[in-house]
Amino acid sequence: MRRFEGKRVIVTGGASGIGKATVARFAAEGAAVVLTDIDGAAASAAATQIARETGATIHSFTADVSVKADDLATRQFALEKMGDIDILVNNAGIFYEDRFEDITEARWDAILAVDLKGSFLMSQAVVPYFKGKRSGVIINMASTNGLVGERNYSHYNAAKAGVVLLTKTLALELGPFNIRVNCVCPGYIATDSAVGINTPEFIKDYIEHKIPLRRLGKAEEVASVIAFLASDDASFVHGDAIVIDGGQLAE
Ligand SMILES: NC(=O)c1ccc[n+]([C@@H]2O[C@H](COP(=O)([O-])OP(=O)(O)OC[C@H]3O[C@@H](n4cnc5c(N)ncnc54)[C@H](O)[C@@H]3O)[C@@H](O)[C@H]2O)c1
Hints:
Elements: E1 8-12, H1 17-28, E2 32-37, H2 40-54, E3 58-62, H3 68-82, E4 87-90, H4 105-133, E5 136-141, H5 154-174, E6 179-186, H6 192-196, H7 200-210, H8 219-230, E7 241-244
Parallel strand pairs: 1-2, 1-4, 2-3, 4-5, 5-6, 6-7
Helix pairs in contact: 1-2, 1-8, 3-4, 4-5
Bound molecules: nicotinamide-adenine-dinucleotide.
């Protein structure tokens, strides 16, 4: 399938994990991609690797999604390099585990700045452009933690719940301009950073007791849903929060 032939995509936080798998998926289906990340060296390495593997055009760009000037620069860079922007994936995010009483103001601000404000600022950077051409697709990265609570993640849960409602509100405001907006809500996905914060015993117990499919998800399994939402296959899907969790929230 090459659903994105001729399409131009921005993926934030694309240097690793779900973001990198998403860039690879769009590239494999024919898109040109601007891959941004706060870690410029990792972004450049990921772009080079994916371009080599897929033959696609991938441009890397160093940007912090929580900084408005960086988001405006990302839009400018994308327009200069690709000539147009069709799809924005607001993937960049960070997570920490902290008991509520232990959360410092700095940690609270950091999570809200990257996971929620980053999606707001980057969307605000491209929406006037999308409105001008009366088309565009935005996909935000929420989480099952944006739909139900999880102990010791109140900052992260609050940010991701904000992403879900930001998505739905943008869908209301931007739908009349033919701009589709959705978000994805992954459960536990086996990226280095998500696996790295827990012990093997914790993960084994989590799989046995919480995930009906009895395994963690793969970054590629989130990327494939993002690609579906970005494609014309999802042309009437709008304002939705799609759960990708191996059945965890079924209970
Ligand atoms: N892995 C999971 O289980 C899981 C589950 C639900 C949601 N998510 C969400 O998916 C997204 C990706 O998670 P992941 O597991 O692939 O993590 P990851 O750490 O592998 O990837 C995140 C990327 O974002 C980049 N980044 C961090 N801060 C940034 C900033 N300020 N500006 C730009 N880039 C920045 C990092 O350098 C990194 O490359 C996050 O939004 C995360 O909250 C992950």
